[in-house]
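QA checklist item 7 of 12: single-chain prediction sanity check.
[x] sequence parsed
[x] length recorded as 330
[x] structure emitted
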Amino acid sequence: MLRVACLPGDGIGPEVTAAAIEVLHALPVDVEVEEHSFGGGAILAEGTPLPDRTLAACKAADAVILGAVGLPELEGAQVRPEQGLIALRRALDVYANLRPATGPSIDLLIVRELVGGLYYGASGRRPDGSAYDTCDYTPAAIERVARRAFELAGARRAHVTSVDKANVLETSRLWRETVVRVAVDYPNVELEHMLVDTAGLNVVQQPGRFDVILTENTFGDILSDVAAGMCGGLGLAASASLGDGRPGIFEPVHGSAPDIAGQGIANPAAMLRSVALLLRHAADEPALATSLERAIDHALVATPTTDQGGTATTAQFAESVLDEMLNAVR
């Protein structure tokens, strides 16, 4: 039995997660799903984006499905939905964020360190009006995400591009030194180093040259969005955030899109692709994950939603995905 904690979140989050859960229940996987409060809705109801019982349920689960978070009325508030996401990642220690990007000229996987760097370092305002954000990394934090990247590359095309800013930043010099040390244990995987500005240029101009990109938190956040733009945009981008054990967090990259929430027209492709990552990394069902990914690709052509130039609703897109999977089995 695969125990899944579902955090629908805000805006279109409940709509796309509902489609994802429908598809997941229709697959030949023994799964139990429990829904829990998270994000902006949780702030309005309970004053916190991550209630204690939600965190406890996530820790007890085998996987977490997470919808988008964010509400317009909470922009600039002291307590924000995004704080719950950062707290959840830290509590589950999901240090490796996997962001695949696939398309006609691109097939790469970004492995982003997720629980360190600028987003988790000391920050604040000084009396003189200036502000600071601290980027902090230890060799151990770099080593574990580097090992994950090399292992994943070994099952792909055996090439890792480690992205840093070693010509300027001391943390990047530590990053490069540590990755070089780890690479010795993976002699069958080729390693190259690339500065982040050069990497951004090449993701746009020569995306086919990359296999696995390994990088720190902030650089990975930016590069993964650039890569998503090369294969259809954030509305189609999925992610998996993994630690050394369960549970992992599986979530689309897009925002809560409050302007279309409740209309039943949100594209669930990114959420469904996140379910495919769940099947591959949490349920040990790689063949089923591949079948789902192919069915999603087919539905994007055969039954596109409005954002992709079609007229399909969220429910119709999910139904198309299921129909294609059933046809593939026949």
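[x] summary fact logged: The chain has two domains: 1-94+243-330, 101-232.
[ ] second reviewer sign-off
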